[in-house]
Specification:
- The protein has a three-stranded parallel sheet with strand order 7-1-8, with helices on one face. Strands 2-3-4 form a three-stranded parallel sheet, with helices on one face.
- It is α/β, with parallel strands linked by helices.
- The chain has 15 helices and eight strands.
- The structure holds iron/sulfur cluster.
Length: about 350
């Protein structure tokens, strides 16, 4: 049976039944297979990007049950504060600025575009910004359709988008954990429209709350199916749920480190020949566990970040910044070759 499944893995035709079978294998078998496929897909290099996160506001009209970042007495960064943060990032060699924020009731598409234009007119950096939920919010507030909103953002300097707000792409789960967020269909529509317009995105999955293992498999296979149509995803990033300071925390079932490694390993296998890059989020997993995932399917450690507010407010303790030296030490520590990259995985 495993040989037949491996043929389908190579043909990008793995089925849900195959995925369920694979998830019933022993951890050693699953992890070994993920490591083999990682080597076949990307060799022994492990990549990272020098970037900076900017969360321009923590005020939000949303009601996500997993969110510990939103605040009723929140801040909104001024244009000058944003430019100052970009300046600091550029000075330490950042090639990417990652911008996401809460949903401000009156924030219009022009405001999002203005933020991009302001940065682009001062700095030659790649702007990786605005989740599909933020794009939806900007379009809705301004009476624009999604395609026109994305075109306007791209014309203002948007280079790529985080594929966040995906959580678990199943509406029965979304009704429980993020009832006022965009639906599965809307997320898929925004992401595929972005890809069609030449805006690459990442793909993410928030796991370890109320979803089942089968829900995770459905999510990963949906991402695979989108990728086979658009080729617009740059990487897949499993994001473990952080349970502190939010109402979902009491219901969550994030199990243990083996479960975390299993999610990353299975992602590598199910996405083989579709998405080459599987990223570990060191800020959520913790630095040590992120390093371990490099042995079982992961080939990217994401960014240096410089600043991190969302995970920290939900109990994350991994810190806000890892220097290039720190990241390279983690990578060489497992016998692999560190490579700095751009947001779009060109090696530097
Ligand atoms: S996750 Fe984002 S959209 Fe949801 S409440 Fe928090 S800040 Fe708002």
């Amino acid at each position: 049976m495993i040989d037949e499944i491996l043929e389908r893995v190579q043909d990008r035709g793995i089925t849900k039944a195959d995925a369920l079978y694979l998830s019933s294998l022993s951890s050693q078998e699953l992890f070994h297979l993920a490591d083999q496929l990682r080597r076949e897909a990307v060799g022994d290099s492990v990549t990272y990007v020098i970037n900076r996160n900017i969360n321009f506001t923590n005020s939000c009209i949303g009601d996500c049950a997993f969110c510990a970042f939103r605040s009723d007495t929140g801040y909104v960064l001024s244009e000058e504060q944003i430019l100052q943060k970009v300046q600091e990032a550029v000075e330490i060699g950042a090639t990417e600025i990652c911008i996401q924020g809460g949903l401000l009731r009156d924030m219009m598409l022009d405001d999002y575009c203005g933020m991009l234009e302001n940065i682009k007119s001062n700095f030659a950096v790649h702007i990786h910004a605005f989740s599909p939920m933020e794009v939806f919010h900007a379009a809705r507030n301004s009476g624009s359709d999604i395609g026109d909103a994305l075109k306007a953002l791209k014309n203002s300097g948007l280079n790529s988008m985080p594929g966040t707000a995906a959580e678990i792409l199943d509406d029965s789960i979304r009704r429980k954990i993020c009832p006022s967020k965009i639906s599965t269909e809307q997320w898929v529509d925004i992401v595929t429209t972005a890809h069609r317009l030449g805006i690459p995105t990442t793909a993410t999955m928030l796991y370890g709350h109320v979803e089942s293992f089968e829900d995770r498999i459905n999510h990963i296979l949906l991402i695979r199916d989108i990728q086979q149509k658009t080729r617009g995803f740059t990487e897949f990033i499993p994001l473990p749920f952080m349970a502190k300071n939010n109402s979902l925390g009491t219901l969550a079932h994030r199990e243990n480190s083996i479960d975390d490694i299993k999610v990353h390993a299975l992602s590598r296998i199910l996405l083989h020949k579709s998405i080459k890059n599987v990223q570990a989020s060191w800020v959520k997993l913790g630095v040590k566990l992120a390093q371990v995932t490099l042995l079982y399917g992961v080939n990217d450690l994401g960014g240096t970040l410089m600043e991190e507010n969302i995970t920290k407010s939900a109990g994350g303790t991994a810190g806000e910044y890892l220097s290039p030296n720190d990241l390279e030490g983690l990578i060489t520590g497992v016998g692999r070759t560190p490579r700095r990259r751009t947001t779009l995985y060109e090696l530097i």
